[in-house]
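In this section we walk through a basic example: taking a raw amino acid sequence and producing a predicted 3D structure, encoded as discrete structure tokens. The instruction is simple. Fold the sequence below.
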Amino acid sequence: MSDEPEPGLVPEHLRPEDDDRESVLLTVDGEQFRVSTQAGRPGSYNFDWLNGRNDYGFGLTNSGGLALTRDELVQAIREFLAEIDPATGYLAE
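The resulting token sequence is shown next.
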């Protein structure tokens, strides 16, 4: 059995009070992200990097407006992390 958390709905007590969007927690390569759907925008997501050095994240919209699979969400996170400068914790310039 893996120690890596499985994705699922974020418990109510961990959601911001004004957040009624569905979200999942994903751990990818040791980095934790809350992935939320953007209200009223099918196929659009917000990724909040929960254990990054900075309050940082990114957004993504599937051009077809279709929901992304877990594997597609993980791939998007890996692509984001590949662009992070380890010295600053921000996107490399």
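Looking at the output, two observations stand out. The CA atoms of residues 4 and 27 lie 7 Å apart. The helical segments are 70-82. In the next section we compare this with other chains.
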